[in-house]
Specification:
Layout lengths: L7 H25 L9 E2 L2 H10 L6 H6 L11 E2 L15 H33 L1
Antiparallel strand pairs: 1-2
Length: 129
Amino acid sequence: MVGTSAFDYINVLEKAADAAWLRDQCIANNIANVDTPGYKRQDVDFESVLEKELGYRRSESMDEKVGNVKLSRLKVGAYTDAAGFSYRTDRNNVDIENENVLMAQNQLKYQGIIKGINAEFQNLQKVMK
């Protein structure tokens, strides 16, 4: 991560891409364990972490909010989703149809994040010319 304000959005988008990649791995693992008795689905929730971090500064512009984000607070990990909940008799709480929808949604989100990163670099290239 570069330490200048020109890269603020890129740094935040990088964290978002990392979280989307991790979420993709979690969803793939959920799908692989759809028939494993007792397995509890895993997930990643980057959006609420980012919303919380940006929400600390309600009166600032988005540029100021992103510029003041503490990247160390945007680290997320996998968590067990609804560990005590299961509608199946084998105590597995993975719904394959839901996981497939989440996988497609997450892949679209990841592609959008990568396009955003590319657009930020293109903007920097235009400024440097």
